[in-house]
Design a protein that fits this description.
The complex is a heterodimer of chains A (76) and B (190). With 76 residues, chain A is mainly α. In chain A, helix 1 runs parallel beside helix 3. The radius of gyration of chain A is 23 Å and the shape is elongated. Chain B is mainly alpha-helical. In chain B, helix 2 packs across helix 3. The N terminus of chain B is likely disordered. The chains are: A mainly alpha (76), B mainly alpha (190). At the A-B interface, helix 1, helix 3 and helix 4 of A face helix 1, helix 2, helix 5, helix 6 and helix 8 of B.
């Protein structure tokens, strides 16, 4: 069995860069027998997709906006 | 002609755009004060460069593009100070894998009972995901944000942050392992 560390590395890289033929074979054979890496593969792609929807729960306060307005007025 | 051209309105910028620009910055930079500063700097440099504004793009998109550059600059400055992180990261691989490279028992990815193709999750989910991302170390957070939120390509990120391609992939790999585990522990298997 190939090392899961190397396989997860290939999985992450394959999301951006196409793998070589031999890397693809290594990956596919490993994923047939290792359910942890199989889970990792699905979850890694899922996380990449969901990261684009992150939004922050913190908002600017009225004072923050006031001091920004002052800074703008000072400079305009 | 001049009169028909849409004029920029710096004074209403704050009211119209401050909140959305701030949210955008906050989802990319894990520090509220820095995010505030970057938004303010965005308005100020927009003012300073007001004559370079091209009317082909909207005022809003123009402000966003200035903010985006400020975020990248911020990470570039931080990256310079964080190179010792790389060594620590290589050591920390043992949190996830044993000496043979197999999963450590607590780190093994469990099954998440979800539909992986689902596009949108709840607001609470994104808060947890954001918190998991904010726990990344500086350099990791930099590459991760530029890659997944700014959708930059790896060669561009390496050049911008002055890191090698192999270091880049180590950073991304470790960041993915860490976020995955954080999400599993704090959301999926909670």
């Amino acid at each position: 069995m190939r090392s899961c560390e190397k396989i997860t590395f290939l999985i992450v890289r394959s999301e951006e860069i196409p793998l070589t033929f031999s890397e693809k074979v290594k990956l596919a054979t490993h994923l047939c027998i290792c359910k942890f890496c199989k889970n990792f593969e699905k979850q890694s792609a899922y996380i990449a997709k969901q990261l684009q929807n992150i939004s922050s729960p913190v908002s600017l306060s009225a004072e923050d906006k006031l001091s920004m307005t002052e800074a703008i007025e000072k400079n305009s | 002609m001049e009169e028909t051209q849409k004029r920029l309105e710096p004074k209403v910028w704050i009211e119209l755009y401050a909140d959305q620009l701030f949210k955008y910055a906050m989802s990319r930079i894990p520090d509220c004060e820095t995010a505030k500063d970057l938004v303010q700097e965005t308005f100020l440099s927009a003012l300073k460069n007001i004559e370079t504004f091209r009317h082909e793009i909207s005022e809003k998109n123009w402000l966003y593009s200035i903010l985006k550059n400020k975020i990248i600059d911020y990470y570039r400055r931080r990256a310079k100070q964080s190179f010792d992180e790389l060594e620590k990261l290589t050591e920390r691989a043992e949190d996830y894998f044993n000496e043979k490279g197999h999963w450590q028992k607590p780190a093994r990815p469990k099954t998440w009972r979800i539909v992986y193709s689902q596009a949108n999750e709840s607001k609470e989910f994104y808060e947890i995901l954001g918190q998991c991302k904010d726990r990344l170390a500086t350099l990791q957070c930099a590459v991760f944000t530029l890659k997944y939120l700014e959708e930059k390509k790896s060669d561009e990120i390496c050049k911008g942050l002055n890191i090698s391609s192999s270091n880049y992939w180590v950073l991304i790999h470790r960041a993915k392992l860490q976020i995955r585990q954080c999400l599993e522990r704090n959301w999926f298997l909670k």
